[in-house]
Write a structure and sequence with these properties.
about 300 residues; mainly alpha; Cyclin A, domain 1; 3 domains; two-stranded antiparallel sheet; 2 strands; elongated
Length: about 300
């Protein structure tokens, strides 16, 4: 293999880490065609100017970016704290939040000089991001469950991307040890929960289906949809959108004193809705609506001084 003017930086057995990898004679980290590797004086690390991959790693044994299984093994809801740093009276909720704030710090450390817009938004909105994430986790929303084995980092990246509309490149995600698919799948869940675009919202579609099944007029269904949209992204423990729609229609009708919308009528007219799942969905919406009004006691919810 031909030598490189940057061999002392990238190593003797260098391979391009772009996706897909470039031939060495086209890689700016190996040839003099470009600017050569970039040096970060803050971290003392070299990176590729094209894909941002950290260099001088090819001589290390078996070092690769995590796949989904490896990522889940290392980046989950478990957080190591040194024995002397443990706070004995820390609540479970505070411990969970601390884990997420530390994950945010680690993301900013990696992306701060690469994607300053994303990093700045994440830093400024971290309390709001964690608040929203805890609502999603507490309701066990699909791909946002809070349990061992479900990685935290992709959830934070997806939620930040959704809230800021600032996307990360595949190279930037690889630097974080995340596969793009892990973020995109969670973004699809967030888009489905949001009703800003009724043509893409399964909730809106199912509300029309359920409403018409029990004889509600279109103007009444439209009002219920508007009420749902005003609440914003509201998760539910039940994954089935038809059950969610039935639960919301029941609560909206009860709140507006619309007669004739009963659990019995919903169950008998919408065959996929069962009593147990409907009850769970109703209670889940009640709980999450209450959480929107009453913040968790003893936890900082704002970055205001």
């Amino acid at each position: 293999m031909a030598s490189s003017p940057y061999e002392s930086i990238v190593g003797r057995f260098f391979e391009c880490k772009d996706d897909p990898p470039l031939p060495l004679n086209q890689c700016p980290s190996w040839t003099q065609l470009g600017t050569g590797p970039l040096f970060n004086p803050d971290t003392g690390e070299w990176s590729c100017p094209l894909c941002y991959a950290l260099l001088n790693r090819d001589n290390e044994e078996e070092e690769e970016f995590f796949d989904d299984d490896e990522e889940a093994a290392f980046d989950n809801d478990e957080d190591y704290t040194a024995e002397g740093e443990r706070i004995q009276d820390q609540t479970d909720e505070e411990r969970i939040r601390v884990t997420r704030y530390r994950t945010i710090d680690s993301i900013i450390d990696v992306l701060g000089g690469i994607n300053p817009r994303f990093s700045r938004f994440l830093n400024e909105q971290q309390y709001n991001i964690v608040d929203q994430l805890r609502v999603l986790e507490d309701s066990q929303e699909t791909l946002f469950e809070a349990r061992t084995g479900v990685p935290v980092k992709p959830k934070i990246i997806a939620l930040t991307t959704f809230m800021s509309n600032i996307t990360l490149s595949s190279q930037e995600l690889r630097l974080l040890g995340i596969k793009p698919a892990a973020v995109e799948s969670r973004l699809r869940v967030l888009r489905a929960l949001s009703s800003n675009d009724s043509e893409q919202s399964p909730m809106v579609e199912k509300m029309y289906f359920v409403g018409k099944s029990i004889g509600l007029s279109k103007p009444i269904i439209d009002i219920m949809i508007e009420q749902y949209e005003e609440v914003g992204m509201l998760p539910n423990i039940e994954p089935d959108w038809t059950v969610r729609a039935a639960a919301w229609i029941f609560l909206a009708a009860k709140d507006s004193s619309i007669k004739g919308v009963t659990k019995t009528k919903l169950i008998s007219n919408v065959l996929v809705v069962k009593k147990s799942s409907l009850d769970r969905a109703i209670e889940s919406y009640k709980k999450n609506l209450q959480n929107r009004i009453k913040p968790v006691e003893g936890v900082l919810l704002s970055d205001d001084d």
